[in-house]
From TrEMBL, chain A:
It is a peripheral membrane protein. Gene3D superfamilies: P-loop containing nucleotide triphosphate hydrolases. SUPFAM superfamilies: P-loop containing nucleoside triphosphate hydrolases (SSF52540). It comes from Diplocloster agilis. The keyword Translocase applies. This is Sugar ABC transporter ATP-binding protein. PROSITE patterns: ABC_TRANSPORTER_1, ABC_TRANSPORTER_2. Signal peptide: none annotated. Its main location: membrane. It is found in: Cell membrane.
Automatic annotation (TrEMBL), chain B:
Its main location: membrane. The keyword Transmembrane helix applies. One of its GO terms (molecular function) is transmembrane transporter activity. It is a multi-pass membrane protein. It holds the Pfam family BPD_transp_2. It comes from Diplocloster agilis. It is found in: Cell membrane. This is ABC transporter permease. GO terms for cellular component: plasma membrane. The chain crosses the membrane at residues 12-32, 44-64, 95-117, 124-142, 162-183, 204-228, 264-282, 294-313. Keywords: Cell inner membrane, Cell membrane, Membrane, Transmembrane, Transmembrane helix, Transport.
Length: 499, 319
């Protein structure tokens, strides 16, 4: 009988309003490479945060090599032999490889000075152990992402890690580097180290993993040997449910194309993306986190530099090099981080609404008129049903849903025809979500063209007339209304073929 | 009960300095007969006018979340420019216009650099600090390092006479007050100061606004310099040294927040008057220079403490 390196049994974790983990069970055999897969928000990250002690599970147990353990913080996890290689690398860029290896625990020699000699030799040995060569004296900021990962892995091995968790390790690696990483993973497996491999890329999972566990909506769906899985079965399990949430019906029919972008490129982020947007339609922009959806929209509105590409608005070729030009060409963007980039929290509801078009509430466009401001703000507060004690209330005191409505009101006030919504319902409670959906429908019916980024599968399927799926900065595909399904979106969003 | 207490506290944080000002005036006028005279009060305002004009200019920059340390050097440069034209060529109008344009140019360079690099407060601090050094040197080179005593004549020599400096100070204060409060430009500057990223994503041309702010500060500084050189009928290539700190101190004491978005021109006028009255009061009470500097330093520190704690109070308590 094989023994388990790690067992997480019936883990439950609640956050206010959501059950993030609902009796998740994960059993990883010793010395295997075990994949955890699931959609954005399925609970993978939460589960890993329970494992490294950032979160405490509400119930459930964790066993390491059969021994039940309590993991209170990251140091406990470390001492139990669990190491993490995260997407965001945990190295100090301005220090050398050696210093990062011994961060906070530099070796001293008999004179109580830093023992560079021994440390450098140890680091070299650790790197050799995973068949990787690199000058340990180099500063981390000079290294590539792949090299940094290797260092993290080597550091984990040198600390006698028994389990290494890799979270999307290949997300920013080239093909060549991926091969190198896989070679190292195989070396580690031979040394009896267990690896938990989190990835969206199914082809990689089939190449490198021995077993896989699918998680969906905070629940474990199934664990199988990878050889018993097919790609279709994995996707089906990841998506699973039939879409049950109710979305308000929309009566509008897409009209003429009022916005088109061709061959949009942004340095190292976006590659040759085309899209067309029609009056009265909601175009969904789907993709996994990091697919480049927000980056694409920032480029379109001139907030970031467009390297190449052509934008046509109402059929006319238009150059947009800053956000002001975007606004004057009838494009507005409701950003994902409404507190950071959407609102001045210290300012009132009224002041936030009118900021996009101050001349409209000013006499001859130059002298602000308090009466006009009040009327304009009052109109939108009523139309969008913004719940606030008054228009002079600071926006910081509003709920998330109402803050979001204020940001949308800003763009309605400036009367844009093309509205980009980046994760419009993130962090908003269910009731307010429904209201936002109704609002989106109303705007589409009024003839606005809406480009909606969303990472929630239900939402993007329920709301979109058409969906563009992005992956790694590329447009991976486009789904017409009759082709929209969770499976189709997911198939395009995960990387199952070479580009 | 508690709510009421908070309300009083936040009022105190807003207008505490005004209370301090009134207290100073009351106490000192009881102690000294010379203090509360029309002559002395006019004198205070006359002396404060130059710093005042600089202060209202730099207020606009500070409201947007930036800072300008180069305005003191701009005063030095503009002073020697106008004085050299008045003395050497009897061209007072040309001199004044060129001096003011020089201030605008310094501001333009500041603004363009900061706009291009998308600078934040810390960037504008260092960039205008560098500019301060460079412009001070230009003033020294231009004047050959010499102190210029005015040989008089022309419109220039009239500007600093009598109530005129006070008039100019109040005039520019009123104009900028109206611009900041009632125009789309002013409102946008406030919004920028409150949240630059949100302003950008709302379609504000941040680069244009940043540039304009520094041009305003530069022009106000050189205008102040024209009046200063007229009032003292002289100019020296180091005449504005340290003035930028006096001006910024007045802004802070008035209650404009260095983080941007909060405060205003009226508050700065108040700050200028408080610092002026305080200095004069200390003089009247025969406090010598060094203890005066200690007191002024602490007034500035108290102003910042009041500002910060007042904000905390408002964002936690009321509501």
């Amino acid at each position: 009988m094989e023994s388990y390196a790690l067992e997480m049994i019936d883990i439950v974790k609640n956050f206010p309003g959501v059950k993030a983990l609902d009796n998740v069970t994960l059993k990883v055999k010793k010395g295997e490479v075990h994949a955890i897969i699931g959609e954005n928000g399925a609970g993978k990250s939460t589960l890993m945060k329970v494992l490294n002690g950032v979160y405490q599970a509400d119930s459930g147990s964790i066993r390491i090599e059969g021994q039940e353990v309590k993991i209170g913080n990251i140091n406990t996890a470390k001492s139990l032999g669990i190491s993490f290689v995260f997407q965001e690398i945990n190295l100090v860029p301005t220090l050398s490889v050696v210093e990062n290896f011994y961060l906070g625990e530099l070796l001293k020699n008999k004179f109580h000075m830093i023992d560079w000699h021994t440390m450098t030799r140890n680091v070299k040995e650790a790197l050799e152990k995973i068949n990787f060569t690199l000058d340990p004296k180099r500063r981390v900021l000079e290294l590539t992402v792949a090299e940094k990962q290797m260092i993290e892995i080597a550091r984990a091995v040198s600390r006698n890690a028994k389990i290494i968790v890799m979270d999307e390790p290949t997300s920013s690696l080239s093909e060549n580097e991926v091969e190198k990483l896989f070679a190292i993973i195989r070396t580690l497996r031979e040394q009896g180290i267990t690896i938990i491999y989190i990835s969206h890329k199914l082809d990689e999972i089939f190449e490198i993993c021995d077993a896989a566990t699918v998680i969906r909506d905070g629940k474990t769906i199934e664990t199988r040997r990878v050889k018993d899985y097919t790609e279709d079965l994995m996707i089906e399990q990841m998506v699973g449910r039939s879409v049950t949430m109710e979305f308000p019906q929309r009566t509008s029919k897409p009209g003429e194309v009022i916005f088109s972008a061709a061959d949009i490129c942004r340095k190292n982020k976006i590659y040759h993306v085309d899209l067309e947007l029609r009056r009265g339609e909601v175009l969904g922009l789907a993709g996994l986190v990091g697919a480049g959806r927000t980056e694409l929209c920032e480029t379109i509105i001139g907030a970031e530099k467009m390297e190449a590409g052509e934008i046509r608005i109402f059929g006319k070729k238009t150059k947009i090099s800053n956000t002001r030009q975007a606004k004057h060409n009838s494009i507005g963007m409701v950003t994902e981080e409404r507190k950071e980039t959407g609102l001045a929290l210290d300012f009132s509801v009224k002041q936030n609404i009118v900021i996009t078009n101050l001349p409209k509430v000013a006499w001859k466009g130059i002298w602000l008129n308090a009466g006009k401001e009040d009327r304009a703000a009052g109109e939108y507060i009523e139309e969008l049903n913004i719940k606030t004690p008054g228009m002079n209330q600071k926006t910081m005191f509003l709920s998330g849903g109402n803050q979001q409505k204020v940001v949308i009101a800003k763009w309605l006030f400036s009367d844009v025809d093309i509205l980009i919504l980046d994760e419009p319902t993130r962090g908003i409670d269910v009731g307010a979500k429904f209201e936002i959906y109704q609002l989106i429908n109303k705007l589409a019916e009024q003839g606005k063209a809406i480009l909606m980024i969303s990472s929630e599968m239900n939402e993007i399927i329920g709301m979109s007339d058409r969906i563009i799926v992005m992956h790694n900065g590329h447009k991976k595909g486009e789904l017409e209304k009759d082709m929209i399904s969770a499976e189709n979106v997911m198939r395009l969003a995960v990387d199952t073929e070479e580009e | 009960m508690n709510k009421n207490k908070n309300k009083w506290l936040s009022l105190l944080c807003d207008y505490g300095l005004l209370v301090v000002l009134i207290l100073i005036i009351l106490i000192v006028s009881l102690l000294s007969k010379e203090f509360m005279t029309v002559d002395n009060m006019t004198n205070i305002l006359r002396q404060s006018a130059v710093i005042g004009i600089m202060a209202i200019g730099v207020t606009v920059v500070i409201l947007a979340g930036h800072i300008d340390l180069s305005i003191g050097s701009t005063v030095s440069l503009a002073g020697v420019i106008v004085m050299s034209f008045v003395n050497n060529y009897k061209m007072d109008w040309t001199g004044m216009i060129l001096a003011i344009l020089a201030g605008g140019l310094v501001g333009l360079v500041n603004g363009l650099i900061i706009a291009v690099i998308n600078g934040r407060t810390c960037d504008s601090f260092i960039i205008t600090f560098g500019m301060q050094t460079a412009v001070a040197a230009v003033a020294l080179i231009y004047s050959g390092g010499k102190y210029m005593s005015g040989t008089g004549g022309g419109v220039h020599s009239l500007l600093g006479k009598g109530y005129l400096p006070i008039f100019f100070f109040l005039f520019f204060a009123v104009v900028l007050f109206l611009v900041m409060r009632y125009t789309p430009f002013g409102r946008t500057v406030y919004f920028m100061g409150a949240n630059t990223k949100a302003a950008k994503m709302s379609g504000v041309n941040i680069k244009f606004y940043t540039t304009m702010l520094f041009v305003i500060a530069g022009v106000m500084a050189s205008t102040a310099s024209v009046i200063l050189s007229s009032r003292v009928n002289a100019a020296s290539p180091t005449s504005g040294k340290g003035y930028e700190l006096d001006a910024i101190a007045a802004v802070v004491v008035g209650g404009t927040s260095l983080t941007g978005g909060k405060g205003g021109i009226f508050k700065t006028v108040l700050g200028v008057v408080i610092i002026g009255v305080l200095g004069n009061a200390l003089n009247v009470m025969n406090v010598t220079t060094y203890p005066q500097m200690i007191i002024r330093g602490f007034i500035i520190i108290i102003a910042v403490v009041l500002d910060v704690s007042g904000n905390k109070l408002k964002n936690s308590g009321v509501n």
